[in-house]
Amino acid sequence: MSQTPASANPKVGFVSLGCPKALVDSERILTQLRGEGYDLVQTYDDADVVVVNTCGFIDSAVAESLDAIGEAMAENGKVIVTGCLGKRADVIRQAHPGVLSISGPQDYASVMDAVHAAVPPTHNPFVDLLPDYGLKLTPKHYAYLKISEGCNHRCSFCIIPSMRGDLVSRPVDEVLREAEKLVRGGVKELLVVSQDTSAYGVDLKYAPRLWGNNVHETRMKALCEGLSTLGVWTRLHYVYPYPHVDDVIPLMADGKVLPYLDIPFQHASPRILRLMKRPGAVDKTLERIQRWRSICPDLTLRSTFIVGFPGETDAEFEELLDFLDEAQLDRVGAFAYSPVTGAKANELPDPVPEDVKQERLARFMERQAAISEARLAAKVGSVQRCLVDAIDGELAIARSMADAPEIDGLVQIQDGREAGLQPGEFVDVRIMGSDEHDLYGEVEYND
């Protein structure tokens, strides 16, 4: 990492782990730190104290978080821990008893109190100015927009509600004002995130709020209508498969919201879905997918699944493979079931042996890889609107409307440097080739 110039201000190092929702938490803490006059540094040696924002959802994430805390303790010695794993303070204290403070997710006040105790601020409000959209950890041209905290569901494999609590929605005018500031700061793509985007506003009884000259209800469709007026891409993540998801499909067909849905279906066996405490009407799900595509043919569907859930039989796994064949999803992630500490699913009978879980996962991913490859191949010869993320040699690395950052594929523009493309720029690309993940093309020049 690069060296930081000498400064009289106290210096904070920061390690951010976990999902985009945790990334937004990190951005808020960093914005507050910078606003109080702290310098943000890139090396342990330069830092007066280190903050580690942890993840604690699955065992591998817990291990990664504990390793990150251990590295910070070894390299610096003054460490403040926050985030989801902070809800399991005993686990952290057992591994690293010398940490200065432990707090849970969204507990910004506790983090700031711990930083103040370790290194008091020396803020000069006439010198330390911030952009009105705050500090971001993503590139300048896209940003995560968190619309709520927590979740009202009690999926048997998940411990998120015990870490982040029940659903707490942000009022729609507050969200739209933040989006407006981000767009003024140069953001070209807003990635809407929450634990359950389609439940947005239910806790506020969909209360109407004034933004600009219009009244918007605090619900997903009204939020999308407001965001559509900002002239940038809006991408929806973590959409629970409620029937009212149907309401946003016409907005996608009209170009107001990106034709992209990130819906974690999790499985396709009705019995396994009931054990997961998830919606179990698989036939209706397939019907809805067909209806969505009839309204919006360009719709991209991304999903995640769990294989090897306790009690999953060979026949139920075959049901899952059949669902993939029928649904023809564009992008899919999958995980072998992991017995997360505290999850109700751990109490279910008939756990699937680890070797069987891994064999099923491999078969699942092989089946989906063929589907994804075919769906991408169908785009060869088309022109795709893309957003440039980076320049790499002669290539411009971009994403189409079908590609969310970091989790989906890329569009490699072969003549990107020659065309003078820059990160954050929109461009039309003629697709010349594909594989199971990415597209390859050249700039489409319009006469």
Characterise the protein shown here.
With 447 residues, the chain is an alpha/beta fold. It is 32% helix and 22% strand. It contains twelve helices and 20 strands. The strands form six sheets. A five-stranded parallel beta sheet has the order 2-1-3-4-5, sandwiched between helices. Strands 16-17-18-20-19 form a five-stranded mixed beta barrel. α6 (172-184) runs parallel beside α7 (220-227) and α11 runs parallel beside α12. Mean pLDDT is 90; it is low at 1-6 and 125-129.
The biggest beta sheet, please? Answer: 5 strands, parallel
Distance between the termini: 45 Å
User: What is the β-strand count?
Assistant: 20
Structural class: alpha/beta
- State the strand order across the main sheet: 2-1-3-4-5
Overall geometry? globular
% residues in beta strands: 15-25%
Please name the defining characteristics of this protein.
single chain; 447 residues; alpha/beta; five-stranded parallel beta sheet; five-stranded mixed β-barrel; 32% helix; globular; disordered N terminus
